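Not sure how to ask, but would you mind making up any protein sequence you like and the C-alpha cells describing how it folds?
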Amino acid sequence: MSMHRRTLITGAAALAASGTWLPAWAQERRFAPQPSPGWRTFDLTLTVTVADPQGTTKLWLPLPDLETDYQRTLGHSWTGNAAQAQVVADAARDTRMLYAEFGDAVKEPSLSVTTRVQTRNRVLDWGTKGAPVAEDPEVLRAALAPTELLPLDGIVRKTALEVTRGARTDADKARAIYDWVVANAHREPKVRGCGIGDIKAMLETGNLGGKCADLNAIFVGLNRAVGVPARDIYGLRVAPSAFGYKELGANSAALKGAQHCRAEVYLKQRGWVAMDPADVLKVARQETADWIKDRKHPVVAPVDKALFGSWEGNWVGYNRAHDLMLPGSAGKASLAFLMYPQGENRSGRFDELAPDNFRYVISAKEIV
C-alpha cells in the first residue's frame, strides 16, 4: 500500500472519551506456504495513566496498523476521562495512532484502548524457485531511503560494501548481512527499552551491543546501503513462543517490556521476507544462564536458521515508521519510532520508560 494513500482519520472528538473505529476490511490474499493452522485472534489492551498532570495532558498510543498476509486489524475501541480522543495519523509515514487530550482539571488522566487483531506465522520455503512479485514503487523507495538514525553513506555504506563483497543477488546480500550481524553484534541487556537504533554511532565506536531496535536497525541500514529494500517493523510480543524459548515469547497477561522490533527485506522473486537477527542474538545472550557465542549451538542454531525467512504469529506489528511526528504535539522533534506510549504536558515530553510518572499496562487475550 502506498505510503500516502491512507486517509487521515479525523473523526468527531469523543467528548465522553469513548469510541470505536472500524477500518475498511482489507482483502485477504493467500500466503503460501501456510505452516500454521491459520489465523490467531487477540484482544490487545493498553491502559495508560499519568500520575503527575501539569496543565493540558496529551497522549499518543500506538495502534496495530498493518494489513498484510500475516496480520489484519478488526477494530479499535477506547474509554477514559479525556476531553477528546480520536485516531490521527502522521500521514507522510502512513502511521496511525490514538490521540487523547485531557483538560487541566483532570487529576489522573487515563486512557484505555483495545484492538482486536489477527496474526499468523510467516515461513518462507527457500527451496522453492519463487516468482516475480510486484510492489508499489513508492513503498520500495521508502524502504531504500536514509533516516535520521539510518544514514546510508559514510561508514554505513563502507561496512555494507565490505560485508556483501562477492554477493551477486539481493538474496545473497541479505544473507551476508544477516550472517554478519549475528556474528559481530550482540544483545546488551543493560540498554534501556529496545534501544534507539543509531547505527552510525554503533559502527563508528565499534560497539555493536544493543537491543532489537539497534540490532535490526543495523541489518536494515546495511541492506538499504547496498540497494536492498528493507524496513523495521515495531510491535509487541503477545503470546508464548512455539519454539518453547522464554525469550521469544511473552506472558499475555502482562506485556509490559514485551515490545519488539522485527525486520524484513524485499526480494524480487519472493516479495517481503521476514527477518529477525536481533532475536537470534537475544536467544544467544539470555535464553540460558551462559552467553552462547557459537551460533551452531543446539539452543541457537534452530532460531538462527528459522529467523532468516520466518516469524511466529505470537507478535503484533504496530507500524514501520521512522522519524515520526506526533500530530498536535508542542514539541518539534521527531520520534525515531513509535513502539511505546507517548505523552506530554506543560513540563514537556514524558519519558516513556519512566513508570513512576507515566504508567501503562498492556495485556493480550487470545480469542479461541
